[in-house]
Amino acid sequence: MAKPIFNKKIHKACKYCEHSSPSSFNDEMICRHKGVTEPDDHCLKYRYDPFKRVPAKQTLDKNYTKEDFSID
After folding, report:
1. Using CA atoms, how far apart are residues 47 and 23, in angstroms rounded to an integer?
2. I need a surface site. Which of 32, 36, 39, 69 has the fewest CB within 10 A?
């Protein structure tokens, strides 16, 4: 059996579903099956779309030294 590409523990949410799109008026989603929903809701037709997921930003350590930028 092939190893899954995506983590199965991703929280199901309309904001990651291929059947929904964001509303231009507020923070709600428009689903083809349920209509207007909250971004964190989901239904039985949920299907994960990896292109809708935005990775969390990584923070960088701000303790730089001059040696960090030298090529020596």
Report:
1. 19
2. 69
